[in-house]
Amino acid sequence: MQLQRLVAELNKEQEAFIASKSAEKGEAVAPWVGAPNEDVLREECLSLSIDQRNFLKSPPKEVDFPWNFEAVQPMAQATLALDPNLENMRFQLVPKVISEEIFWRNYFYRVSVLRQSHELNTLANQAENNQSSAGSVEQAEVQVTTGQESNGTMTAENSNTFADSPGHEFVSDSMRVTDTDLQEVREGMKKLGMQPPKARSSIVSVLNYYEPTTFVKLGIPAVVCSESSISM
Fold it and tell me: What residue numbers bound the domain in which 38 lies?
C-alpha cells in the first residue's frame, strides 16, 4: 500500500532518531521525543492516561499494528517516569483488570496513531506550502479567457510556457491517480485505523503536491487526485 509504505518510512526515521537519542543519553526516551510538533504530541499522549478506555479497548482487528512487548519496555519505563497519570492508571488496571502486555499494547497503539497523524499532517502542511509557491508562478504564466469568450483554453504561448514550467509535472497524465491507487489509499487508512478529521485533506495534499523526488526515494509513485475522489 502506498500510504503504508510512506508511514513505514516515517516510522523507520522516527525509530532511528529515538535510538540515537537513547544512545546519547544512555537511556530510553518517551514516544513523543523527536516527533513533529513534539510539545503538542506530548500533551496529547499525556491526555491518553486519564481515560481507562484507551487501555481497555484493543486495536481494531483489521489494523496491522506491529507489536513487540519486550522491545517497548525501556520506552514504557521512560514514559512512566514522565506521566504520573499513566503510572496511576497502570496501578489501577494491572493485573486486576488486564495484563501488563495488553495495557501497553493498547496504549502504544493509540500513541502510534497520534504520532502518525502528526507526521502526515506535517507532510500535508509542507505540501500546501509547495502548492502555494507553484500556484503563484502558474497564475502569472497561465491566462484563461473569461466572460462569453471563455472556453477553458489557453493561448498557444501560455500553453507552451505552462508545459515547460516546473509545476507542470504535477498534472501530467502519467501521474494522475488511478482507481487502484485510490483503493490502496482507502485500504491503507483502514488498516492503520486512522480517520482523523484532517486525514482526507492530508492524503490529498501529500499525493498531489509533495515533491516527486521524495516519493521516488520512498518507492512511491507520485499521483494527482482531488479531495472529492477520496471517500472514507
Answer: 27-127
The pTM of the full predicted model, rounded to 2 decimals, is 0.53
Q: What is the pLDDT of residues 82-105, one digit of tens each?
A: 999 999 999 999 999 999 999 999
Task: List all residues 6 or more positions away from 99 whose beta carbon is below 8 Å from its beta carbon.
Answer: none
On the question of a cis peptide bond just before residue 95, with omega within 30 degrees of 0, the verdict is yes
Residue 182 domain-assigned?
no
CATH number reported for the structural domain that contains residue 76 in this entry: 1.10.3970.10
Please name every residue paired with 144 in a beta bridge, in sequence order, or none if there are none. Answer: 154
The answer to which of 10-14, 61-65, 106-110, 167-171 has the lowest mean pLDDT is 167-171
HEC readout, 11-74 = HHHHHHHHHHHHHHHCCCCCCCCCCCCHHHHHHHHHHHCCCCHHHHCCCCCCCCCCCCHHHHHH
> Do the domain assignments include residue 84?
yes
**pLDDT-derived band at 196, boundaries 50, 70, 90:** very low
122 inside domain: yes
